[in-house]
Specification:
The protein is an alpha+beta fold. 26% of the residues are buried. It folds into 2 domains: 19-103, Dcp2, box A domain (Arc Repressor Mutant, subunit A), CATH 1.10.10.1050; 108-289, Nucleoside Triphosphate Pyrophosphohydrolase. A hairpin with a 5-residue loop joins β8 and β9. The protein has helices at 19-31, 41-62, 71-81, 92-103, 145-157, 234-245, 301-304, 310-324, and strands at residues 108-115, 120-126, 131-133, 136-138, 170-175, 178-188, 202-209, 221-223, 229-231, 262-268, 280-282, 288-289.
Length: 327
């Protein structure tokens, strides 16, 4: 043999982004912005965070040889690569620590979306981790609360909430130094099509029964009766229950509704940025329970899923018996 050849099945070592890519990201997301956005390190790091999301969602997905990075790792590379930011590299640890502290003080706004019976609310599951929450997110600079809620709901669920949102109907809580305001958007049809517009942020969307979401405590992180892990859901439930008791739902409760949550969108074979796999979306036309069990598609599924339409069969049998009965 003339030499050793690397096996094609051997894992490819991930590499750091080249300087050309870092310069492009820095120029596109950090430097070419209004001057006021560069007046504080908090604003600069929000810009770097946008560049990081683009790198993970696009660059890494297109090029499997690139390494997925944490925000801190990516920030360090950007500061070391960008001439404007390079003088501040010695202070980067303090800058990043201040930014992390600042982020938990940024107001959060979102929505509690109720169906037409007020028995279910829409929850979203994050891309990483098992927690479910109401669709919500941090407010942008100079953005009004209701505008942030409409934007976040649209990004995380694909639902346009502007026509149903009432600026006066909301529940607000304070967690440490952070204000969280959730607008109540009631009367959404349960057959509404939902799908996130942003990549790698939401992994699942489901209608969950409110009576399943009544935990024993008001902790920020809690578990529902069904075992779902909830984030920032429990503290809003008492106020939400009071609001529901004071308002008449458009539709009466349906006796034929499933007892468990209804999954209306789920990402399958999702890429986390560490490989080049393609995301396959599962839409509402292929519903599944929110506990994550996929539809039965295994061998023999067509037989197991077959159901007789008993009514017409009985009518046909009755007609046949009547034809042979003696007068």
């Amino acid at each position: 043999m003339s030499g050793l050849h690397r096996s094609s099945s051997a894992p490819m070592k991930k590499g750091l982004p080249p300087k050309e890519l870092l310069d492009d990201l820095c120029s596109r997301f950090v430097l070419n912005v209004p001057k006021e956005d560069l007046e504080s390190f908090e604003r600069i790091l929000f810009l770097v965070e946008n560049a990081h999301w683009f790198y993970e969602d696009n660059s890494v997905e297109r090029d499997p040889s690139l390494k997925s990075l944490t925000l801190k790792e990516f920030t360090s590379l950007i500061f070391n690569s960008c001439d404007v930011l390079k003088p501040y590299v010695p202070h980067l640890d303090d800058i990043f620590k201040d930014f992390t502290s600042y982020k938990v003080r940024v107001p959060v706004t979102g929505a509690i979306i109720l169906d037409e019976t007020f028995e279910r609310c829409l929850l979203v599951k994050g891309w990483k981790g098992p927690s479910w929450s109401f669709p919500r997110g941090k407010r942008n600079k100079d953005e009004e609360d209701h505008a942030c809620a409409i934007r976040e709901v649209l990004e995380e669920t694909g639902f346009e909430a502007s026509k149903l949102l009432n600026k006066a109907e909301y529940i607000e809580k304070i967690f440490g130094q952070q204000r969280v305001r959730l607008y109540i958007i009631a009367g959404v049809k349960d057959d509404t099509v939902f799908a996130p517009l942003t990549k790698k942020e939401i992994s699942e969307i489901a209608w969950q029964r409110l009576d399943e979401l009544l935990p024993a405590s008001d902790d920020v992180i809690s578990r529902a009766i069904s075992g779902l892990k909830l984030y920032m859901v429990a503290p809003f439930l008492a106020s939400l229950k009071s609001w529901i008791s004071a308002h008449q739902p458009p539709l009466a409760p349906k006796s034929d509704m499933p007892l468990k949550g209804i999954c209306v969108w789920k990402a399958k074979n999702s890429s986390t940025g560490n490989n080049g796999s393609t995301m396959i979306m599962e839409g509402q036309s292929n519903k599944c329970e929110a506990d994550g069990h996929p539809p039965d598609t295994g061998p023999g599924s067509s037989f197991r899923n077959f159901r007789f339409d008993i009514g017409p069969i009985l009518q046909t049998m009755e007609a046949a018996f009547s034809a042979v009965r003696p007068n």
